[in-house]
Structures are given as structure tokens and as C-alpha cells.
UniProtKB/TrEMBL annotation:
Organism encoding this protein: Pseudonocardia endophytica
Annotated keywords: DNA-binding
Molecular function, one GO term: L-aspartate:2-oxoglutarate aminotransferase activity
Source species taxonomy: Bacteria, Bacillati, Actinomycetota, Actinomycetes, Pseudonocardiales
Keyword match Zinc-finger: no
A Pfam family hit: Asp_aminotransf
Protein name: DNA-binding transcriptional MocR family regulator
Length: 407
């Protein structure tokens, strides 16, 4: 075996400039939606149901587009809102609204509730944490398991503390672990006893149709299960076409109970006279129906599955027999989690940076940027071309080997 220090010096000498940090689609993926930019086309602004999409109004979004996405995000079409380009924005605004105006079933608005805390399954998505940190909502980490958050811990915490007002969930192909919530996890989240009457699940189904294999996994329907359990207002479901059509010019969705939807639309009508319905029409014409979305996602899969396979190959070639080094093999989504022995993640990220390979900062997968074990590294292989992934991952392997050798 080559000396890890010598291999690292060779790596640095290559003068690389590679980036595995953010889960962005590649330009080839964005090109798949190129024909959409010619739609609806001059003179084609009236939707099939007769809406002049150029004008103000239509706060809930174009029905033709909501009909396409309702089955994909498991929300009845009447309870689905199609908005502008970012679901993160919808999550942010929902929490701002909850702080400033009482949610259906809430004893007070959250700014008057004293402490407000959210459960954060870890590892998780840094931008969820960012929203809470900005709004003064405290984050309480709970561990992830292979079937979703540790539900014994979640149930224990929410039953005993009325200041715990919500939980972040990425239920399918989670960021960063690729975890798919089991039906049992979804049922328990929907039906558990919560001390807060205004408890909400932030159900961020960002990767609902983003399969990496032919096993197109379906999850349980959180809205239906919550309604059945007598908690219809508990879930807020989010999704978007950011990683279906165009990351910067897609359409975001919010689905919830009728009471939540009415609450949300009334408050949102104070900040906008309606969403970008021309973009809704463009998306509806381009994607056509749920089957059209699935076919489009199969084309994405062809582009990105080889990149994920490359990450798997280089990691298993190097570490299949190394104790303490493990990684996820996701069936969908945008990320691979690499777990190194405790205390080494930030050192690996530092070594990689010095060698010109940008990795997501260690700790970003945990609230307040602090991974107490300093063990999780999030890898995002969709953006760079395949040859760059190969070079970057070979470099990551060298950095892990050096960090292990120096331990
Ligand atoms: N939610 C998750 C879990 C994500 O990973 C991302 C982007 O990486 C987003 C939301 C962002 O969604 P949007 O582009 O709709 O704002």
C-alpha cells in the first residue's frame, strides 16, 4: 500500500479545483428542460381551463399544474398550493406566519408562546436549521435510524414538552442519508400524542420522484394518516420542481389540511397578488401529467446514477475492509453520507480543502453546525462531470486514509 502522506503530497501537487459541496443539478440535467423555455410561447397564455396566466390572481396556483403534482406529493388537489420557485421559501414563510398569526388550533401565535423548539433529526439539511436559527426557534437533535427519526425518542420528547412545536422531516431519500421513512414511522408521526396542540410536521418531500434505481419507492400518505388519527392539521407537505425542471425557475408546492391551506392563503395574500402562473402553465404544458414527470425523472436518473455508482466504487475499493468507515448507498435523492471514525470528519474536510477539493463543512448536517461526533461528511455528486467526480473521490479517499494513518 502506498504511504498515505506521500499519496497526499502527490494529490496536492495536482493543483485540483473540484467541488462536491452542494446538491445542485448539472447543466446536462438542466438541459433536459430546455424545450420548456419555449413554452407557453407568444399568444399562448390562456390555460386549458381558461385562466389568462399573465394577470394577477389565482393565489392557489394554476389548477392544471396542481392536478399533475397532487398524486406525486400525495396531497388532494384542492388542498395543494402551487407557488413560486422555492419550497424553502414556503417553509420559511410558514414558520414566520406561525410566529405572527396563530395556526389553526393554536392557543397563541408562537412569538407569544415563549420558547419555541423544533426537533431536528440528525444528520439533516442545513437550510432547515438555518430557517430556525434565523427565527429564534430552538433546534433539538434526535437521531436518525434506517427507517426515519428514532420514534421512541420523538414520542417521548413531544409528549412531555408543549414548547416543542414541530419536527423537520425529509421522508424520502433524506438529505443527506438517503433514508426512506417506513410506513410505521409515518403512522407514528401522524398519530403520536403531542403536548403542543399546535404541533406541526414540516414534511419536506423534496425528493419525492428522484429515484436512482428502478425501485421507485413510495412512502405512506402523511396527510391521510394524520386525518385518520384525528390530527388533520399536523402536516405541512412541501415539494418543488427545483430538481425536476430548473433549480432556479421551478415551481414549489405546499399541501395541508383545508384549514391550514385557508390560513396560509389568507396570510400570503398580504404579501403577493398571486404566483407566477405563466411558469405554472409552462410547466404543465411541458410535463403534461404525472407519467410525464416520471419519464422526465428517468432521464435525470440516466445522467446521475453513474455518478453515484462512481462514488460507491471508489469508496468500496478503498474502505470495504476498514473498520469505522461507512457510507450510505441511497436509492434516490442527491447525497451520499460518508461516516469516518469520531473526530476525523473536520480533519478530512480540511485536508481535502488544502488539496483543492471543496467538501461541505463537517458539522453542516447538524444543528448549529456542530456534529458532536465530528464523523459525518456529506458528498454531493450530481453537479460535477463524471471524470471530476472520479478525481475528487480519489482525492477524498486519500484524505481519509491520511487522517486514519495520523490518528
Ligand atoms: N429541501 C431539501 C431537503 C433539499 O435538499 C433542498 C435542496 O437541496 C431543498 C429543500 C430546496 O428546495 P427548493 O429549491 O424548492 O427551495
Amino acid at each position: 500500500m502506498t504511504d498515505p502522506a506521500a499519496a497526499y503530497e502527490e494529490l496536492k501537487a495536482q493543483g485540483l479545483k473540484l467541488d462536491l459541496t452542494r446538491g445542485k443539478p448539472s447543466s446536462e440535467q438542466l438541459d433536459l428542460a430546455a424545450p420548456m423555455l419555449d413554452l407557453p410561447g407568444a399568444g399562448h397564455h390562456v390555460s386549458p381551463k381558461g385562466t389568462d396566466t399573465r394577470n394577477y390572481g389565482g393565489g392557489q396556483g394554476l389548477p392544471e399544474l396542481r392536478e399533475i403534482f397532487a398524486p406525486l406529493v400525495q396531497v388532494p388537489v384542492e388542498q395543494l398550493i402551487a407557488s413560486n420557485n422555492s419550497s424553502l421559501e414556503l417553509m420559511h414563510d410558514t414558520l414566520v406566519h406561525a410566529l405572527l398569526s396563530p395556526l389553526p388550533g393554536a392557543p397563541t401565535r408562537w412569538v407569544d408562546a415563549g420558547r419555541v423548539a423544533f426537533l431536528a433529526p440528525v444528520p439533516g439539511y442545513d437550510r432547515h436549521y438555518g430557517v430556525c436559527e434565523r427565527l429564534g426557534i430552538e433546534l433539538l437533535p434526535v437521531p436518525m435510524t434506517e427507517s426515519g427519526p428514532d420514534m421512541d425518542e420523538v414520542e417521548r420528547l413531544v409528549a412531555g414538552d408543549p414548547s416543542i412545536k414541530g419536527i423537520w422531516c425529509v421522508p424520502k431519500y433524506s438529505n443527506p442519508d438517503g433514508v426512506v421513512y417506513s410506513d410505521e414511522t409515518v403512522r407514528r408521526l401522524a398519530s403520536m400524542e403531542t403536548a403542543a396542540p399546535d404541533f406541526r410536521i414540516m414534511w419536506d418531500n423534496a425528493y419525492a420522484v428522484h429515484h436512482l434505481t428502478s425501485d421507485e419507492i413510495e412512502i405512506a400518505d402523511v396527510l391521510a394518516l394524520a386525518a385518520e388519527a384525528g390530527n388533520p392539521d399536523r402536516p405541512f407537505v412541501f415539494g418543488s420542481t427545483s430538481k425536476i425542471t430548473l433549480a432556479g425557475s421551478g415551481v414549489a408546492f405546499l399541501g395541508a389540511s383545508q384549514a391550514n391551506v385557508d390560513w396560509w392563503l389568507a396570510l400570503t395574500s398580504k404579501r403577493t397578488i398571486g404566483p407566477d402562473k405563466v411558469n405554472h402553465l409552462r410547466h404543465a404544458l411541458f410535463l403534461r401529467d404525472a407519467a410525464g414527470v416520471r419519464a422526465h425523472m428517468a432521464a435525470h436518473r440516466e445522467l446521475i446514477a453513474p455518478k453515484f455508482a462512481m462514488v460507491q466504487r471508489l469508496l468500496s475499493d478503498a474502505f470495504s475492509d476498514t473498520e469505522g468507515v461507512t457510507w450510505t448507498e441511497p436509492k434516490g435523492g442527491y447525497f451520499v453520507s460518508l461516516v469516518v471514525p469520531d473526530g476525523l470528519a473536520s480533519e478530512v474536510v480540511r485536508l481535502a480543502k488544502e488539496a483543492g477539493i471543496a467538501l461541505t463543512p463537517a458539522g453542516a448536517t447538524h444543528p448549529y453546525g456542530k456534529d458532536p461526533q465530528d464523523a459525518v461528511i456529506r458528498l454531493a455528486p450530481t453537479l460535477p462531470p463524471l471524470d471530476e467526480i472520479e478525481r475528487a473521490m480519489a482525492g477524498v479517499v486519500t484524505c481519509v486514509q491520511l487522517a486514519l494513518a495520523r490518528r
